[in-house]
Design brief:
Layout: H1 19-33, H2 37-46, H3 51-65, H4 69-79, E1 86-87, E2 92-93, E3 98-100, E4 105-107, E5 112-113, E6 118-120, E7 129-131, E8 136-137, E9 142-145, E10 149-152, E11 157-158, E12 163-166, E13 169-172, E14 177-178, E15 183-186, E16 188-189, E17 203-204, E18 208-210, E19 215-216, E20 221-222, E21 227-228, E22 233-234, E23 239-240, E24 248-251, E25 256-260
Parallel strand pairs: 1-4, 2-5, 3-6, 4-7, 5-8, 6-9, 7-10, 8-11, 9-12, 10-13, 11-14, 12-15, 13-18, 14-19, 15-20, 18-21, 19-22, 20-23, 22-24
Antiparallel strand pairs: 16-17, 24-25
Helix pairs in contact: 1-2, 3-4
Length: 261
């Protein structure tokens, strides 16, 4: 798998669960503390320079993001595509769906994004988020780019309260099924210097790739640098630290292959 950014040497999963957030969130906090508030908000949320981009984003959110019921669905179907890089036919955007750097978000036909989801395509040199035809994102799901890319192929179904974070490339193949509370953790950070706070040490990312027709049970966590082959099943609650070959069933902490399909 080719990463969008050169990988630093690190064992897969060495950053630990949730590691991909620390260094980047630290930088975000530092950015917000420095400079003008409006400029930093535009940089972190809107992703485009200029007053027109900021006003356009704010108007779309104000007029449609919070509106409940059928009226809200109609308003968001009309207004949200105005912000997106690409949007196919008949999208559905639930209540309080948050878009960051929306010009780097591309949706295929028939994409459904449930209530309270966040699609954050933030980054200075990344491509962003790409959702294929018929993708479904369950309620409270977060797709978070840390200057990386996220690609969900046609027919991917993500259960509620799941999270995908990418510092390089996280890709889920066609017809992938992720149950509730799954995490794909496409990044980490160095931790070799005990005299420096970990969140200030260099961020690293090798990426995550799931082949076509992969099913992750509830609460599965896939760490940075892992590839799961096509037609695999991973049991609920597993923590995947190393590659899983095609047509395998894996389970446990750490996950191990228990049989072939």
């Amino acid at each position: 798998m080719s990463d969008a950014h050169p990988a630093q040497p690190e064992a897969p999963g060495a950053g630990g669960i949730g590691a991909s957030h620390a260094s980047d969130d630290y930088l975000v906090r530092r950015q917000l503390q420095d400079g003008g508030a409006a400029g930093k908000y535009r940089e972190l949320v809107v992703g485009r320079p200029g007053l027109a981009a900021l006003v356009g984003y704010e108007l779309v959110m104000l007029l449609s993001s919070w509106v409940p019921g059928a009226l809200g669905l109609v308003l968001r179907r009309f207004f949200y595509p105005l912000l997106l890089g690409e949007c196919g036919r008949k999208p559905v955007f639930g209540h309080n769906v948050v878009l960051r750097h929306p010009h780097k978000i591309r949706l295929g036909d028939g994409v459904i994004i449930d209530d309270n989801c966040m699609l954050d395509a933030k980054g200075s040199s990344n491509t962003g988020i790409s959702l294929g035809d018929g993708v479904f994102l369950g309620r409270n799901t977060i797709l978070s780019c840390k200057n990386g890319d996220i690609e969900l192929a046609d027919g991917v179904n993500i259960g509620f309260n799941s999270q995908i974070a990418s510092g390089s490339l996280v890709r889920v193949g066609k017809d992938g099924l992720l149950a509730a509370y799954c995490y794909l953790i496409g990044g980490g950070h160095e931790s070799a210097d005990p005299n420096q706070p970990i969140q200030e040490q260099q961020a690293v990312s090798h990426g995550v790739e799931l082949g076509d027709n992969v099913w992750l049970g509830a609460g599965v966590k896939v760490l940075d640098g892992v590839t799961i082959g096509a037609d695999c099943i991973v049991g609920a609650g597993a923590v995947v630290l190393s590659d899983v070959p095609e047509r395998s069933v894996a389970a446990g902490i750490p996950a191990r292959v228990i049989r072939e399909r």
